[in-house]
Amino acid sequence: MNRLPHFLCAAAAALLVGCGRSDVKITGRFVGTDAPTVYLEQVSSARQQLVDSTKLDAEGNYRFRLDRAPATPSLYNIVYNGERIPLFLAAGDRLTVQAAGNVVRTYTVEGSAESELLRRFYQNFIGGAQQLDGIARQLADPSLGEEKRDALVREYTTEYYRIRREQLAFIAENKASLAAVYALYQRLPGDTQLSDAASDVIHYRAVAEAIEPLYPTSPYLVTLKGDIARMEAARQLAGQVTEATFPDLELPDMYGKRIRLSSLKGKVILLDFWSAELGNSNTLNAELKELYAAYREAPTPLEVYQVAIDTSKPLWISTVQEQALPWISVSDLRGRQSTALGTYNVTKLPTNFLIDKEGTIVARDLRGEALKRRLEQLTR
C-alpha cells in the first residue's frame, strides 16, 4: 500500500504509473490443503460482505481484482479453508498474499506496509487466543485432577497476560497505523475492554491523534472519535454511582441456586466484583478473608456478595474452592457481558461497593485499612 500517494504524485509525476489507479490487485498461492476456493470479503462495523471469489489453479495460484477500490485504506479479509487473513486495501495497491499449510500461522504479505504490520499483530494474537481456547477446553473436563487443574490455570493466566502485554505494546509502538486501530478492537475471551476504562481511552486517543494527519478522511478515525466520546461519558456516569440505594442483583452460585443481593439487607454488605481469570485474586481475597472473619459476627454482621466476572465455570469454581472463600460467590458466567457490570457501571476489576444496613451505598473501592475503619463504624 502506498501510504503517501499525493506527496509521491507531486514529487515524481513521471514515475507515478499507479497514482491514477482505482483498482486493487491481489495475487498469491495457497498450498498444503484441499480447499479449492478463495474468497474476498469487505469488513464494516455491521457485517462482513462477500465481494468476490476465485478458484485455485492446479499449482494453488489465485488472483483478485477489486475495481473502484476506496481511496483510503479499508479492511478486507481473504478467506481460505475457513480462516481469515485481514488486509487494509486502498486504490492502486498490488499485493501478494500466500500461505503453506495453516493459513493464519504461515501467511505472508508483500506490497502493503499496513497489511504487513497487521500480519505481525494478527498472527501472534490469534495464535495466543487459540491457545487460551485449548486450555479452557481442558479445564472443562470434569475428571481433571486438582494438580493438573492448578497447572492449567497458571498456564492460562500466564498466556493471557502475555497476549495482553504484547497487544498493548504493539498499539503503543505503532500508534500511527491502521494496524493499531485494528489491534485496539481485538478482545480476548471474556473481555469487553482492552484493559480498563481509564487506560483504554488513553490508548484510543493516542491512536486517533497519531493517524489523523496520515488518514484525515478515514472512516476509522470517525469511529475512534465516537468511541472516545462514549468512553468519556461512561467514565462520568460510573462516578455517579456512589451514594444511593443499591440496585438489586440475582445471580446463581456454583450449585445453580439464585441468590438476591437484597436478601442480605439489614447486614453490612460488601458487593465485590472480581475475576478468577485475572490471576490476582489470591492476595486480594486473603486480605478480605481476614476482614470477613473479624466482622461476620459483629452486632451488625458483615456479608460479602462476590460477583465473578468469568466465562469458565471450572476455573471459577476451582478458584473459589482452592481459596476456600467463605462468603456468597455468584456468577452468570457471561464475563464482560455480565449485566451486573452495567447495573453498577463497573469498568475495571476488582471493584467493590460498601452498603450499610439501611441499603445505602456509602463507599466505593475501599480496601485495606480504609475498608477496615469503615467496617468498624458500620458494624457496631
Q: Can you describe what's shown?
A:
The chain is an alpha+beta fold and 380 residues long. It has helices at 5-11, 103-106, 113-139, 146-173, 178-184, 197-211, 219-238, 281-295, 313-322, 339-343, 368-378, and strands at residues 24-31, 37-43, 48-55, 61-66, 74-80, 83-89, 94-100, 108-110, 250-252, 258-260, 268-274, 302-308, 328-330, 351-355, 361-364. It has a five-stranded mixed β-sheet, covered by helices on one side. Strand 9 and strand 10 (258-260) form a beta hairpin. Helix 8 runs parallel beside helix 11 (368-378). The protein starts with a helix and ends with a helix.
Name a few traits of the molecule:
380 residues, alpha+beta, Immunoglobulin-like, four-stranded mixed β-sheet, five-stranded mixed β-sheet, 22% strand, elongated, disordered N terminus, Glutaredoxin
Task: Summarize the entry for a quick read.
This protein has 11 helices and 15 strands. It is an alpha+beta fold and 380 residues long.
Q: What is the secondary structure topology, with strand pairs?
A:
Blueprint lengths: L4 H7 L12 E8 L5 E7 L4 E8 L5 E6 L7 E7 L2 E7 L4 E7 L2 H4 L1 E3 L2 H27 L6 H28 L4 H7 L12 H15 L7 H20 L11 E3 L5 E3 L7 E7 L6 H15 L6 E7 L4 H10 L5 E3 L8 H5 L7 E5 L5 E4 L3 H11 L2
Helix pairs in contact: 3-4, 3-5, 4-5, 5-6, 6-7, 8-11
